Amino acid sequence: MQPASVAQGDGARLAASVSLVLASAKINDHVADGDGVFGRRGISTAARRVAGRWAAQGAWTGEQVGFDTAVLLDAVGEQPAVEQSLSRGDSLLLATSPTETATAAAFAHTAVLSGRPGNTPALSEAGKLFGRIAHLVDAVEDIEEDRATGAWNPLLATGTSIEEARRLCDDAVLGVRLALREAEFTDSKLVHALLAHELDHAIKRAFGDVHGPGHAHGHGHPGGPQYPPPYQPQQPPPPYHPPNQQPPNKKPKRKDRREDKRREWQQQGWQRPNRSWGAACGLAIAMFCTCQFCCRDPYHDPWTGEPKEGWCHSCDCCDSCCDCDCCCDGCDCCDCSC
Q: Hey, how many other C-beta atoms are within 10 angstroms of the C-beta on 5?
C-alpha cells in the first residue's frame, strides 16, 4: 500500500459534489431503463441505494461550499427530452443546452469560492461555452462510431455538418477568451492556458488539424492524404510522402503519436465505457478543477475513457502561443521564449 496525495480545498469539494450528483443520476437512468444487469431486481435495488447515497453525499458536499446541486439534476433530467425532440434542420445548440447549463453553474460558483463574486457573470459565460465545446468535440470524435452503431449523435440527429460544428467551436473559444478578459484573477496565466490555449488544441485534435482557421492547411480530417505544396518554377520539386508517412529525420506529428498510443492502449485492453453525457460532464469538471488534464499522464478522457497524454506532456502547450490572437495583449501566459 502506497500513500497517495488527495486534493483538498473548496475547489476539489465542488468538483466532488458535481461528480457524485451526476454519477448518481446516471445510475438511476440505468435502473429506470433496465440496462444490462441493472434490470435484475437485486442489483437494481442495490444500485438505487448507492445512487441515493451518492446524491445525498454530493448534495451535502455542495452545501458545504454553498453550491446547489439541483441545477445539475435539472440539466440531467432535461437531456433525454431534448434528444427526443430534435430532428434534422434543428439548431445544434439545442442539443448542447443542458450541458452548457451544468458547466455554467459549476464554473460560476468558483467565483464565489475564490472570494470574487464579481467574476460570476464572466465565469458563467466561460463555463457555458466550455460545456458547448466539450459536447461538440465529443460528438465529432464519436460520429463515425455512432453512425455505424446507430447511437444517437447530435450532428447526425440535426444534420449538422462537420464544418458548422467547427465554426461553433471556434466561436465558443473566442467567447471564452472574451469572457476571461472580463474577469479578474490574481494570476491569469494558468486559467488562460487551460481555457484558451488548451481548448483550442482540443478542438484541433478532434477535427484532425494542427493549424487554426486562416492558415493555409484549413480544417483537415484525420487520416487524410498529405500532398506536397505546388511546384514553383526554378525550384526543385518537393518529395512526395505517402499518406500517414513522415519525411525522413522528422519528428512524428502529435496526431500520429496519438494514433500510435491509441493502438497501443487498445492492444492492452482499453475499452470505451458506457457513460452518459451527464456523468462524463461531471467527471470532466472534476478533472478540470483538480488539474488532471494538464498534470496527469496519461489521463482518461471523461467521455470515451481513452487514455491520453497530459496537456503538459513534452511541454508542447506553446505550439501556437505566438500567433493565437489572444485576448491577453502579447500572449505571455506561458512565458514563451519562442
A: 5
Q: Of all residues in the chain, what percent carry a pLDDT higher than 70?
A: 62
pLDDT at 207: 92
User: What CA–CA distance (Å, rounded) separates 125 from 108?
Assistant: 8
Rounded CA-CA distance 337/333 in Å is 11
Residue 5 has what pLDDT? Answer: 59
Polymer length of the chain: 338
- The pTM (predicted TM-score) of the whole model is 0.62
Cell numbers for 188: 491569469
The span from the CA of 171 to the CA of 133, in Å, is: 10
CB atoms within 10 A of CB 17: 28
- Predicted confidence at residue 88, as pLDDT, reads 95
Find the helix packing angle between 93-113 and 277-289, rounded to 10°: 30
CA distance 313 to 234: 42
Q: Which of 198, 300, 205 is nearest to 254 (CA)?
A: 205
The residue type at 180: L
Report which secondary-structure segment, H or E, holds 308: strand 307-308
For Cα atoms 311, 317, 322, give the angle at the middle one, nearest 5 degrees. 160
pLDDT beneath 50: ranges in the chain: 210-212, 214-238, 240-248, 251, 314-330, 333-338
Domains, the chain: 10-214+271-315 (1.10.600)
Residue 34 has a pLDDT of 79
